Amino acid sequence: MPHTVDAVVVTEKNAPASVQSIIVPDPGPGEVVVDVHTCGVCQTDQHFQRGGVGDDFPYLLGHEATGRVAEVGENVTSVAVGDKVILNWRAVCGQCRACAKGQPQYCFDTHNADQKMTLTDGTELEPALGIGAFAEKTLVAAGQCTVIEDLSDEHDAAVGLLGCGVMAGIGAAINTGGVQRGESVAVIGCGGVGTAAITGAKLAGATTIIAVDLDERKLETARSLGATHTVAASETDVIEGVRELTGGHGADVVIDAVGIPATSTQAFYARDHAGRVVLVGVPDPSFTLELPMIEIFGRGGSLKSSWYGDCLPSRDFPMLVDLYRQGRLDLDAFVTERVRLDEVQQAFETMNQGEVLRSVVEIG
Protein backbone atom coordinates (compact mmCIF):
# COMPACT_ATOMS: atom_id res chain seq x y z
CA MET A 1 0.00 0.00 0.00
CA PRO A 2 1.15 3.62 -0.47
CA HIS A 3 3.52 5.10 2.09
CA THR A 4 3.30 8.44 3.89
CA VAL A 5 6.83 9.73 4.53
CA ASP A 6 8.71 12.93 5.34
CA ALA A 7 10.37 14.74 2.44
CA VAL A 8 11.82 18.14 1.50
CA VAL A 9 9.55 20.17 -0.76
CA VAL A 10 9.67 23.66 -2.22
CA THR A 11 6.16 24.89 -3.02
CA GLU A 12 6.88 27.95 -5.16
CA LYS A 13 9.75 29.93 -6.65
CA ASN A 14 12.25 31.03 -3.99
CA ALA A 15 10.16 29.55 -1.18
CA PRO A 16 12.25 27.91 1.57
CA ALA A 17 12.77 24.17 1.38
CA SER A 18 10.68 22.56 4.11
CA VAL A 19 9.89 19.09 5.40
CA GLN A 20 6.37 17.95 4.51
CA SER A 21 4.47 14.68 4.44
CA ILE A 22 4.20 13.11 0.99
CA ILE A 23 2.55 10.01 -0.45
CA VAL A 24 4.76 7.48 -2.26
CA PRO A 25 2.59 5.10 -4.33
CA ASP A 26 3.15 1.41 -4.81
CA PRO A 27 5.52 0.80 -7.72
CA GLY A 28 3.94 0.20 -11.11
CA PRO A 29 5.43 -1.73 -14.03
CA GLY A 30 9.11 -0.88 -14.40
CA GLU A 31 9.19 1.12 -11.16
CA VAL A 32 10.77 0.60 -7.73
CA VAL A 33 10.40 2.16 -4.30
CA VAL A 34 13.72 2.87 -2.58
CA ASP A 35 14.37 3.41 1.13
CA VAL A 36 16.73 6.38 0.95
CA HIS A 37 19.84 6.27 3.14
CA THR A 38 21.75 9.41 2.12
CA CYS A 39 21.40 12.29 -0.32
CA GLY A 40 23.94 14.98 -1.18
CA VAL A 41 22.98 18.66 -1.24
CA CYS A 42 23.70 19.77 -4.80
CA GLN A 43 23.49 23.24 -6.30
CA THR A 44 21.10 21.86 -8.91
CA ASP A 45 18.52 21.42 -6.14
CA GLN A 46 18.83 25.12 -5.40
CA HIS A 47 18.41 25.85 -9.11
CA PHE A 48 15.06 24.04 -8.85
CA GLN A 49 14.15 26.08 -5.77
CA ARG A 50 14.93 29.33 -7.57
CA GLY A 51 13.01 28.42 -10.71
CA GLY A 52 16.17 28.13 -12.79
CA VAL A 53 15.26 24.69 -14.14
CA GLY A 54 11.53 25.09 -14.67
CA ASP A 55 8.32 26.22 -13.03
CA ASP A 56 6.65 22.86 -12.33
CA PHE A 57 6.22 23.59 -8.64
CA PRO A 58 5.93 22.06 -6.13
CA TYR A 59 9.28 20.28 -6.41
CA LEU A 60 10.46 17.31 -4.38
CA LEU A 61 14.17 18.03 -4.01
CA GLY A 62 17.23 15.76 -3.78
CA HIS A 63 18.95 13.50 -6.29
CA GLU A 64 22.50 12.42 -5.18
CA ALA A 65 21.34 9.38 -3.29
CA THR A 66 21.96 5.89 -2.02
CA GLY A 67 19.40 3.50 -0.59
CA ARG A 68 17.99 -0.01 -0.65
CA VAL A 69 15.25 -1.29 -2.91
CA ALA A 70 12.13 -1.76 -0.79
CA GLU A 71 9.56 -2.78 -3.43
CA VAL A 72 9.61 -3.61 -7.13
CA GLY A 73 6.86 -3.37 -9.72
CA GLU A 74 5.98 -5.75 -12.52
CA ASN A 75 8.61 -6.62 -15.14
CA VAL A 76 11.50 -5.38 -13.01
CA THR A 77 14.46 -7.75 -13.38
CA SER A 78 17.50 -5.46 -13.05
CA VAL A 79 17.15 -4.97 -9.29
CA ALA A 80 15.61 -6.90 -6.42
CA VAL A 81 14.28 -6.09 -2.98
CA GLY A 82 17.22 -5.56 -0.64
CA ASP A 83 19.70 -4.40 -3.27
CA LYS A 84 21.82 -1.42 -2.30
CA VAL A 85 21.74 1.16 -5.07
CA ILE A 86 23.01 4.53 -6.19
CA LEU A 87 20.28 6.53 -7.91
CA ASN A 88 20.89 8.22 -11.25
CA TRP A 89 19.00 10.51 -13.58
CA ARG A 90 20.01 8.81 -16.82
CA ALA A 91 17.89 5.68 -17.18
CA VAL A 92 18.58 4.94 -20.84
CA CYS A 93 15.87 3.73 -23.19
CA GLY A 94 18.00 1.35 -25.29
CA GLN A 95 16.04 2.21 -28.43
CA CYS A 96 16.63 5.83 -29.48
CA ARG A 97 19.10 6.78 -32.22
CA ALA A 98 21.91 7.42 -29.70
CA CYS A 99 21.41 4.03 -28.04
CA ALA A 100 21.17 2.39 -31.46
CA LYS A 101 24.56 3.89 -32.37
CA GLY A 102 26.11 2.36 -29.26
CA GLN A 103 26.22 5.70 -27.43
CA PRO A 104 23.68 5.22 -24.63
CA GLN A 105 25.48 7.89 -22.57
CA TYR A 106 23.81 10.37 -24.95
CA CYS A 107 20.36 8.72 -24.78
CA PHE A 108 17.69 11.10 -26.09
CA ASP A 109 14.79 9.40 -24.31
CA THR A 110 15.84 8.78 -20.70
CA HIS A 111 12.91 7.93 -18.47
CA ASN A 112 11.64 8.27 -14.92
CA ALA A 113 8.82 6.71 -12.94
CA ASP A 114 5.45 7.11 -14.68
CA GLN A 115 3.51 7.69 -11.47
CA LYS A 116 3.78 10.86 -9.44
CA MET A 117 4.42 11.19 -5.74
CA THR A 118 2.04 13.67 -4.12
CA LEU A 119 1.44 15.87 -1.14
CA THR A 120 -1.15 14.48 1.28
CA ASP A 121 -3.84 16.64 -0.37
CA GLY A 122 -3.17 14.95 -3.73
CA THR A 123 -1.08 17.73 -5.29
CA GLU A 124 1.40 16.10 -7.68
CA LEU A 125 5.10 16.66 -7.02
CA GLU A 126 7.81 17.09 -9.63
CA PRO A 127 10.87 15.17 -8.40
CA ALA A 128 14.20 16.92 -8.97
CA LEU A 129 15.91 15.27 -11.95
CA GLY A 130 13.26 12.57 -11.80
CA ILE A 131 14.49 11.32 -8.41
CA GLY A 132 13.31 13.38 -5.41
CA ALA A 133 15.51 11.79 -2.77
CA PHE A 134 15.35 14.25 0.13
CA ALA A 135 12.77 11.78 1.38
CA GLU A 136 12.52 8.68 3.53
CA LYS A 137 11.33 6.79 0.45
CA THR A 138 11.17 7.68 -3.23
CA LEU A 139 9.71 6.20 -6.40
CA VAL A 140 11.96 5.86 -9.46
CA ALA A 141 12.26 3.89 -12.67
CA ALA A 142 14.18 0.66 -12.21
CA GLY A 143 16.80 1.92 -14.69
CA GLN A 144 17.60 4.76 -12.33
CA CYS A 145 19.07 2.26 -9.85
CA THR A 146 22.68 1.07 -10.13
CA VAL A 147 23.45 -1.83 -7.80
CA ILE A 148 26.57 -1.58 -5.64
CA GLU A 149 27.74 -4.69 -3.86
CA ASP A 150 29.85 -5.53 -0.82
CA LEU A 151 29.93 -2.02 0.60
CA SER A 152 28.79 -1.31 4.15
CA ASP A 153 26.29 1.41 4.97
CA GLU A 154 28.97 3.64 6.51
CA HIS A 155 30.22 4.42 2.99
CA ASP A 156 26.83 5.48 1.61
CA ALA A 157 27.33 9.22 2.11
CA ALA A 158 30.49 9.13 0.00
CA VAL A 159 29.43 6.85 -2.86
CA GLY A 160 26.06 8.57 -3.18
CA LEU A 161 27.83 11.65 -4.51
CA LEU A 162 28.55 9.68 -7.67
CA GLY A 163 24.87 10.20 -8.43
CA CYS A 164 25.53 13.71 -9.71
CA GLY A 165 28.26 16.19 -8.76
CA VAL A 166 31.30 13.96 -8.39
CA MET A 167 30.36 11.98 -11.50
CA ALA A 168 29.82 15.22 -13.43
CA GLY A 169 33.32 16.43 -12.54
CA ILE A 170 35.19 13.16 -13.04
CA GLY A 171 33.29 12.53 -16.27
CA ALA A 172 34.03 16.04 -17.56
CA ALA A 173 37.74 15.21 -17.36
CA ILE A 174 37.75 11.57 -18.43
CA ASN A 175 34.71 11.14 -20.69
CA THR A 176 34.15 14.56 -22.22
CA GLY A 177 37.63 16.05 -22.05
CA GLY A 178 39.37 12.78 -22.89
CA VAL A 179 42.32 13.63 -20.65
CA GLN A 180 45.34 11.48 -21.51
CA ARG A 181 48.46 10.49 -19.60
CA GLY A 182 51.01 13.29 -19.51
CA GLU A 183 48.59 16.07 -20.51
CA SER A 184 48.03 19.38 -18.76
CA VAL A 185 44.63 20.27 -17.35
CA ALA A 186 43.28 23.49 -15.85
CA VAL A 187 40.02 23.55 -13.88
CA ILE A 188 38.31 26.90 -13.33
CA GLY A 189 36.10 26.80 -10.24
CA CYS A 190 36.95 24.42 -7.40
CA GLY A 191 33.63 23.66 -5.79
CA GLY A 192 32.41 20.08 -5.63
CA VAL A 193 32.23 19.53 -9.40
CA GLY A 194 35.49 21.32 -10.17
CA THR A 195 37.38 19.46 -7.47
CA ALA A 196 35.96 16.20 -8.80
CA ALA A 197 37.27 17.20 -12.25
CA ILE A 198 40.72 17.62 -10.69
CA THR A 199 40.40 14.15 -9.21
CA GLY A 200 39.35 12.82 -12.62
CA ALA A 201 42.35 14.44 -14.29
CA LYS A 202 44.61 12.77 -11.74
CA LEU A 203 42.98 9.38 -12.33
CA ALA A 204 43.50 9.83 -16.09
CA GLY A 205 47.23 10.45 -15.63
CA ALA A 206 47.52 14.20 -16.23
CA THR A 207 50.88 15.45 -14.99
CA THR A 208 50.11 19.16 -14.73
CA ILE A 209 46.79 19.86 -13.00
CA ILE A 210 46.04 23.53 -12.36
CA ALA A 211 43.29 24.58 -9.96
CA VAL A 212 41.83 28.07 -10.48
CA ASP A 213 39.60 29.78 -7.95
CA LEU A 214 39.04 33.03 -6.06
CA ASP A 215 38.97 31.26 -2.69
CA GLU A 216 42.25 30.11 -1.14
CA ARG A 217 40.37 27.54 0.96
CA LYS A 218 39.13 25.84 -2.18
CA LEU A 219 42.59 25.93 -3.73
CA GLU A 220 44.01 24.23 -0.65
CA THR A 221 41.40 21.47 -0.90
CA ALA A 222 42.16 21.11 -4.61
CA ARG A 223 45.85 20.61 -3.79
CA SER A 224 44.96 17.83 -1.37
CA LEU A 225 42.95 16.04 -4.05
CA GLY A 226 45.34 16.17 -6.96
CA ALA A 227 46.11 19.71 -8.13
CA THR A 228 49.81 20.18 -8.82
CA HIS A 229 49.56 23.97 -9.24
CA THR A 230 47.10 26.71 -8.37
CA VAL A 231 46.11 30.10 -9.75
CA ALA A 232 44.53 32.55 -7.32
CA ALA A 233 42.04 34.31 -9.60
CA SER A 234 41.72 37.18 -7.11
CA GLU A 235 45.38 38.06 -7.60
CA THR A 236 46.45 36.73 -11.01
CA ASP A 237 45.10 36.99 -14.54
CA VAL A 238 43.70 33.51 -15.11
CA ILE A 239 44.74 33.17 -18.76
CA GLU A 240 48.28 34.35 -18.14
CA GLY A 241 48.53 32.27 -14.97
CA VAL A 242 47.62 29.05 -16.79
CA ARG A 243 49.92 29.84 -19.70
CA GLU A 244 52.83 30.54 -17.37
CA LEU A 245 52.41 27.11 -15.80
CA THR A 246 52.28 25.37 -19.18
CA GLY A 247 55.37 26.72 -20.89
CA GLY A 248 53.53 29.73 -22.27
CA HIS A 249 51.22 27.58 -24.40
CA GLY A 250 48.07 26.98 -22.39
CA ALA A 251 46.62 23.73 -21.08
CA ASP A 252 45.69 20.73 -23.23
CA VAL A 253 42.28 20.66 -21.51
CA VAL A 254 40.54 23.50 -19.68
CA ILE A 255 37.39 22.71 -17.72
CA ASP A 256 35.00 25.52 -16.78
CA ALA A 257 33.15 24.35 -13.67
CA VAL A 258 31.57 27.76 -13.00
CA GLY A 259 29.40 28.39 -16.03
CA ILE A 260 29.42 32.15 -16.45
CA PRO A 261 30.54 34.00 -19.61
CA ALA A 262 33.71 35.34 -17.98
CA THR A 263 35.02 31.92 -16.94
CA SER A 264 34.02 30.28 -20.23
CA THR A 265 35.98 32.99 -22.07
CA GLN A 266 38.96 32.42 -19.78
CA ALA A 267 38.75 28.69 -20.49
CA PHE A 268 38.75 29.30 -24.24
CA TYR A 269 41.88 31.45 -24.21
CA ALA A 270 43.72 29.51 -21.48
CA ARG A 271 43.97 26.38 -23.65
CA ASP A 272 46.76 25.45 -26.01
CA HIS A 273 46.25 25.44 -29.77
CA ALA A 274 44.11 22.41 -30.63
CA GLY A 275 43.27 22.17 -26.94
CA ARG A 276 39.87 21.14 -25.59
CA VAL A 277 37.47 23.30 -23.60
CA VAL A 278 34.87 21.51 -21.48
CA LEU A 279 31.90 23.41 -20.06
CA VAL A 280 30.45 21.59 -17.05
CA GLY A 281 29.24 24.46 -14.85
CA VAL A 282 25.49 24.85 -15.32
CA PRO A 283 24.83 28.31 -16.82
CA ASP A 284 21.93 30.63 -16.15
CA PRO A 285 19.54 30.38 -19.14
CA SER A 286 19.99 34.10 -19.80
CA PHE A 287 23.77 33.91 -20.28
CA THR A 288 25.38 34.23 -23.70
CA LEU A 289 28.96 33.64 -24.82
CA GLU A 290 30.56 35.75 -27.54
CA LEU A 291 33.80 34.66 -29.23
CA PRO A 292 35.40 35.90 -32.48
CA MET A 293 34.83 33.35 -35.22
CA ILE A 294 38.43 33.74 -36.42
CA GLU A 295 39.66 32.71 -32.96
CA ILE A 296 37.43 29.63 -32.95
CA PHE A 297 38.65 28.70 -36.42
CA GLY A 298 42.30 29.65 -35.93
CA ARG A 299 42.89 27.95 -32.59
CA GLY A 300 41.43 24.59 -33.60
CA GLY A 301 40.57 22.04 -30.96
CA SER A 302 37.08 21.81 -29.53
CA LEU A 303 34.57 23.38 -27.18
CA LYS A 304 32.25 20.80 -25.64
CA SER A 305 29.56 20.79 -23.01
CA SER A 306 29.55 17.95 -20.49
CA TRP A 307 26.11 16.79 -19.40
CA TYR A 308 26.33 14.56 -16.33
CA GLY A 309 29.97 13.97 -17.22
CA ASP A 310 28.80 12.10 -20.34
CA CYS A 311 28.47 9.13 -18.04
CA LEU A 312 26.76 5.80 -18.40
CA PRO A 313 25.82 4.93 -14.80
CA SER A 314 25.80 1.16 -15.33
CA ARG A 315 29.40 1.41 -16.60
CA ASP A 316 30.88 4.28 -14.61
CA PHE A 317 29.39 3.95 -11.12
CA PRO A 318 30.72 0.41 -10.45
CA MET A 319 34.15 1.37 -11.84
CA LEU A 320 34.41 4.38 -9.56
CA VAL A 321 33.15 2.44 -6.55
CA ASP A 322 35.91 -0.10 -7.22
CA LEU A 323 38.49 2.69 -7.30
CA TYR A 324 37.07 3.94 -4.00
CA ARG A 325 37.41 0.46 -2.47
CA GLN A 326 41.03 0.32 -3.67
CA GLY A 327 41.85 3.65 -2.04
CA ARG A 328 42.53 5.31 -5.41
CA LEU A 329 39.50 7.64 -5.29
CA ASP A 330 38.97 9.55 -2.06
CA LEU A 331 35.21 10.07 -2.09
CA ASP A 332 35.17 10.56 1.69
CA ALA A 333 37.04 13.84 1.21
CA PHE A 334 34.02 15.29 -0.59
CA VAL A 335 31.72 14.79 2.43
CA THR A 336 32.22 17.98 4.46
CA GLU A 337 29.24 17.66 6.80
CA ARG A 338 26.28 15.41 7.55
CA VAL A 339 22.88 16.98 8.16
CA ARG A 340 19.22 16.08 8.77
CA LEU A 341 16.25 16.43 6.43
CA ASP A 342 15.13 19.56 8.26
CA GLU A 343 18.53 21.20 7.70
CA VAL A 344 18.49 21.27 3.87
CA GLN A 345 17.70 24.98 3.64
CA GLN A 346 20.56 25.73 6.02
CA ALA A 347 22.82 23.49 3.94
CA PHE A 348 21.98 25.60 0.86
CA GLU A 349 23.24 28.69 2.70
CA THR A 350 26.43 26.91 3.79
CA MET A 351 26.99 25.84 0.18
CA ASN A 352 26.52 29.42 -1.06
CA GLN A 353 29.16 30.62 1.37
CA GLY A 354 31.68 28.21 -0.14
CA GLU A 355 32.23 26.39 3.14
CA VAL A 356 31.64 22.83 1.91
CA LEU A 357 32.34 20.49 -0.96
CA ARG A 358 29.18 18.61 -0.08
CA SER A 359 26.69 18.50 2.75
CA VAL A 360 25.04 15.07 2.89
CA VAL A 361 21.60 14.43 4.33
CA GLU A 362 21.50 11.21 6.34
CA ILE A 363 18.02 9.73 6.33
CA GLY A 364 17.83 6.02 6.95
UniProtKB/TrEMBL annotation:
<dbReference type="Pfam" id="PF08240">
    <property type="entry name" value="ADH_N"/>
</dbReference>
<dbReference type="InterPro" id="IPR013154">
    <property type="entry name" value="ADH-like_N"/>
</dbReference>
<dbReference type="InterPro" id="IPR011032">
    <property type="entry name" value="GroES-like_sf"/>
</dbReference>
<dbReference type="InterPro" id="IPR017816">
    <property type="entry name" value="MycoS_dep_FDH"/>
</dbReference>
<dbReference type="InterPro" id="IPR002328">
    <property type="entry name" value="ADH_Zn_CS"/>
</dbReference>
<dbReference type="InterPro" id="IPR020843">
    <property type="entry name" value="ER"/>
</dbReference>
<keyword id="KW-0862">Zinc</keyword>
<comment type="similarity">
    <text>Belongs to the zinc-containing alcohol dehydrogenase family.</text>
</comment>
<dbReference type="InterPro" id="IPR013149">
    <property type="entry name" value="ADH-like_C"/>
</dbReference>
<dbReference type="InterPro" id="IPR036291">
    <property type="entry name" value="NAD(P)-bd_dom_sf"/>
</dbReference>
<protein>
    <submittedName>
        <fullName>S-(Hydroxymethyl)mycothiol dehydrogenase</fullName>
    </submittedName>
</protein>
<keyword id="KW-0560">Oxidoreductase</keyword>
<feature type="domain" description="Enoyl reductase (ER)">
    <location>
        <begin position="17"/>
        <end position="361"/>
    </location>
</feature>
<dbReference type="Pfam" id="PF00107">
    <property type="entry name" value="ADH_zinc_N"/>
</dbReference>
<keyword id="KW-0479">Metal-binding</keyword>
